[in-house]
Amino acid sequence: MKNVIIYGSTGTIGQNALEVISRQKEKFNVLCLACKKNKKLLVKQIEEFKPKYAYLEEKDENLERKYKKIKFFFGEQGLIEIANLKEGDFYIFAIPGIKTLPAFIECIKNKKKVALATKEILVAGGEIIEKMRKDYYFEILPIDSEHNAIFQIIKYENKNLRKIYLTTSGGPLYRKRKKNINIKEALTHPVWKMGKKITVDSATMMNKAFEIIEAHYLFSLNENQIDVVIHPEAIIHGIVEFIDGTSKFVGFIPDMKSPINYVLNYPERVNSGLKYIDFGKIKRLNFETVNQNAKWLNFAKEAIRRKGSHPVVLNGANERAVEYFLEEKIKFQDILKYVEKVVQSHQYKEKLNIEDIFYYHNWARNQIEKIVGGQK
Amino acid sequence: MKNVIIYGSTGTIGQNALEVISRQKEKFNVLCLACKKNKKLLVKQIEEFKPKYAYLEEKDENLERKYKKIKFFFGEQGLIEIANLKEGDFYIFAIPGIKTLPAFIECIKNKKKVALATKEILVAGGEIIEKMRKDYYFEILPIDSEHNAIFQIIKYENKNLRKIYLTTSGGPLYRKRKKNINIKEALTHPVWKMGKKITVDSATMMNKAFEIIEAHYLFSLNENQIDVVIHPEAIIHGIVEFIDGTSKFVGFIPDMKSPINYVLNYPERVNSGLKYIDFGKIKRLNFETVNQNAKWLNFAKEAIRRKGSHPVVLNGANERAVEYFLEEKIKFQDILKYVEKVVQSHQYKEKLNIEDIFYYHNWARNQIEKIVGGQK
Description:
Two copies of one chain form a homodimer. By secondary structure, chain A is α/β, with parallel strands linked by helices.
């Protein structure tokens, strides 16, 4: 019986994880459900999974009174306390942003099993986490479908690699040549049902940029070994090309329950009722190269080359710009423009500690606020 | 330095193997070149690779006089003597038919490394070879692109398999609805340049039937775990589907040098100048299910279920029928019809020794001869 903790239980990853767990209740016990503020759904999940612990960003005495058997955690410190739970076996990180970076680091120190959906943890904290390998042995199980796919190959064969391909369905704007993108268009993803922030990132392709940075840290590959290929059907999620010309592809029906089921049961495989690829239905897999000069791609490669404060600022600026777009305060095409401005104007620092990361993150968010404020 | 022996050096596999070796001369020494009768090409190969041994089916004193330093082997016994060469490290089996089955068995006994292109060895001798696992440890490295692909996955992950797919380009007659197929049509393969016999087998799909039987023995899978999918681009060669819904695909540009390079260097991978998959060029991979009631498919499944004399007769009858077709003595559509007749009429025997295999093989060939003779 594995005691599972879900940071982000009410998000799409969290919900999918609970669905996978509900089909394998004999193997997994939900120890802790953590969410930011979706109380209604959290209560529903508490009723069903009866966790020993729960988390909300802000203290809630009503809930505490209602569920006296549950110990509630709150605030930044609460995230860390959860990472320190003795009974905790398996931690799923699925809260967007860098808030759980300290908890992730704590988990590694505590030798907990970690599964990662929050790519910002590696985008901003990758360098720090990488350095921890000196003192700790740990394996990060990737939930992102692309990294999960690559992991399923590299786990077994990690020598003689030439490069990897992360696939992308192309995002909400694939083949749309329109100039003014409204919110609805940016939020209509052809394949994946995800949160708003990540869906906008899919539209700008910044999501893929962050995935490249994530892949860099997960698989120790340099920026020339990580490529992206458009694959609208989203059946193939990752490709590893070896030096002899042979490539291995990993495919599954686009359903986040698949990588979640994989990491939960890893290194075993368990049939949890997911659909198999049906070639009678699929018939065709399309592939298209990406523009190697695209802004998002260069953002990613530069971030890998420079490291330090660079990816932190990239992520922070993008996060705030997307928020503004979702509030309809800036135009779609301004997102990357503003992000670029902030990245280029920032005073680069090479070696960051965890406080620096939060400093640069907030600095970048503030810069976007200044730009948008100045606009008015 | 590996001492390599090539049974079938003048065939397409043999020629490709020598090309791969010629690019990695520091690693491979051609110890023995064996061919049936293509003396002209053999002489050319001898001049280039200077083997210590050579083989022709029939004794040739001229060649022996010309190349005094080379020891020549001849006849059935010669094939076995080659398998007993002390210096022999790595044996490539690429002579069509079951002639080298005894040599293959001898190689296993002698603990030689074996790479297999001759699928008839497993189709007819699979049961005997399987039983040898009790007394000998051996690994058969498959050269057939489909089996090579599957091997590259199963080698690393062989648990929790649901099924495998062998891909087929569809063969020379894919999407041709014509009834009377002439030799030229049956010999025009859209992807692979191969010998005549195997190209006709691709047209009748019997090649795929034999590959299913081969896969059964190579990977210990039952007939329901081996499926076939049409994939005209021939980029993906094999697919392994796991019980959790995830599939791994292995792809490479259709060039037999790729699997040959793989087996020669196994378990390492070496860049020998083969092309990488270029998604800018490939753009699209098509897949199509096969008719699950096709005669060739049922031949394969029945052969796996029944074993014993059944697959031996299937292979022998098909071999002779294809020869007749190539001699323009029977029509294309008669090949499988006659094969079916012989398979159905034969007196089944369960346990065969090696002599029985040759007996049933020749019996099946004779039956085809009787049918064709009776036609006239």
